[in-house]
Specification:
Length: about 260
């Protein structure tokens, strides 16, 4: 750690997508970084679209998000410096164990077509979060415009994936959710993953340092130090092992360039 860094405001401000905060991985990484460096991280959670808008105010040093198209637009507009890969997991289509739309084992387009044709209730976050952006991509790729009484845009969607999953379970409906959220709530719900394993369901999570050209006051060096930790072998190992002992499978997979170089 460069001693000149410690002369700056020794706090990093970060906006983050909701899921990694709710599962606890953001807190674990932030605590470990503070333990190593003495630098604290203050973070606020919001859906990816909102988190990026929050970061456009210049009040944050970096942002963790998961919607490539929105991230690229944010950078093109000059607010962020670059997308840096941190981790990934995947989304699943989840629904009642009885599977009234009979989608289990079908391809993604077939499953979405069946949900629409049978008019079985589907819950959408509808909030331009990374999960909602992914959901819209999947409908679009299947050539389906999801409208009708069966398609419910939940007014509580902005509360995040945990709240949305609980609501979907109460409604005994279908939705798209990230696997980490499902695993963390698995014991409390009865709905189950029915469609999974398609490459289109991969969920890539990136960190973007906020542009010091646009916002000269940002803690650029501290943000870069935290990013270096996130993408290092130590940070990536924490991500790989996070709660595997509890759930018996990974919640997240390491995905930094540094990690992939180490594993070659």
């Amino acid at each position: 750690m460069n001693s000149s860094i410690l002369d700056q405001d020794s706090k990093i401000k970060m906006a983050s997508t909701i899921g990694p905060v709710d599962t606890g991985i953001v807190g674990v990484l932030a605590e470990k970084f503070e333990e190593k460096t003495g630098i604290s991280i203050e973070y606020e959670k919001a859906g990816t679209g909102k988190a990026l808008n929050m970061a456009k105010t210049g009040c944050f040093d970096l942002v963790i998000v998961h919607a490539k198209a929105l991230e690229e637009k944010f950078i093109a507009e000059g607010y962020g410096e670059e997308r840096i890969a941190v981790m990934y997991n995947d989304f699943v289509i989840i629904g009642p164990a009885s599977d009234p739309a009979q989608i289990q084992g079908l391809s993604l387009p077939e499953a979405l077509e069946k949900i629409k044709n049978k008019g079985t209730k589907f819950i959408s976050r509808g909030d331009m979060s990374g999960t909602h952006v992914k959901e819209m991509e999947l409908w679009d790729n299947a050539g389906i415009n999801p409208t009708g009484a069966w398609y419910v845009v939940w007014e509580g969607g902005a509360k995040g994936n945990s709240a949305t999953l609980k609501y979907t379970d109460e409604q005994q409906a279908y939705t798209i959710i990230d696997r980490a959220t499902y695993l963390s709530l698995k014991k409390d719900i009865t709905i189950v993953p029915l469609v999974e394993g398609d490459d289109a369901l991969l969920n890539f999570i990136s960190v973007i340092p906020i542009s010091s050209q646009k916002f000269p006051h940002v803690n650029k060096q501290l943000a870069r130090d935290f990013i270096a930790f996130l993408t290092s072998e130590e940070g990536q190992t924490i991500i790989r092992d996070f709660k595997q002992d509890i759930y018996g499978e990974p919640l997240y997979f390491p995905n930094s360039d540094e990690w992939h170089k180490l594993k070659k």
